[in-house]
Structures are given as C-alpha cells and as structure tokens.
Amino acid sequence: MHVTNREASPGLKKGGAVNLVLHTVELMAPADDIPESITIDLSGMDFHDSVHVSALKLPEGCRPISGRADLTVVTIVPPTVMVEEAPRPAQRRPPPPAQQQRRLRLERRLPLEPAKAWLPGEGAAAPAGAKPAAAKPAAKK
User: What's the confidence (pLDDT) of residue 119?
Assistant: First the structure.
C-alpha cells in the first residue's frame, strides 16, 4: 500500500495522522498483471475519513479475494493531545455526624454530659430497665 497527496488532505494539514489499517490485500489477478503496489490518494480526506477495499483502484482483471468483508484500509485520525489540567483544590467532605458533634463540643468547649448514677432511696424514679441494688447483709455482732 502506498499513499499519495498527503499535502492535499485537510485532516493531515490540521495535524492528523495516516492510520494504515491493512498493509496487504489479497487479490485474484492474472499471472502477468500482478500489481507490485496499490496506491491510495488522500486528497480531500479529513478526520475520520477512510478508504475501504471496495474503493481501491485496482488494475484491470484484479479483484479482492475476500468479497464478503469490505475492510478498512486507511483512515485519517485526529491528533492525540494530552492536556495538562490545573490541579483542583482539595474538596473536604463533611465528617460523619458523631465526629461532627464531638468537634462542635471541642470547639465550643462544652462539657460532656456526665453519666448519672441511680441510687435507690433518693426519691427519684428509677431509669427504665434499671435493676435495684442488692440489699447489704446485716452486720454480725
């Protein structure tokens, strides 16, 4: 495969590249007219344009062996450019609720609520599910 008229291709002028998909094509040809190469004209081809086997200009008496598949021979691909992105500022996630409450207490310097002990006989109602303390054994004399 040989490509010609690269300078007449708008896709190549814009920085694209020739992607030669098939390097060889099997042909049925007369023994005295076997082509040495096949020339593909790129004039007028832009990005994503392609040439298939069916569009090849073959010498008289030549035909592709694989008639079922119209394979792609050449395409013009756009340039691949790596764009460097500016680093993004770090985004902070809000902490989970328990950590958030703890932080608020520390920031406000609020004391943690002390655990309240329930003692029988102080007149206060026992908390739900609380068991009364066992009676102390009488002292021996």
Answer: 58
23-28 own/partner pairs: CB under 8 Å, 24+ apart: 25/1, 25/53, 25/56, 25/64, 25/73, 26/64, 26/65, 26/66, 27/58, 27/62, 27/63, 27/64, 27/65, 28/62, 28/63, 28/64, 28/65
Query: Are 126 and 120 a contacting pair, CB within 8 Å?
Result: yes
pTM over 0.85: no
- HSE value, Cβ hemisphere, 13 Å, CA-based, for 38: 26
How far is 77 from 16, CA to CA, in rounded Å?
Answer: 5
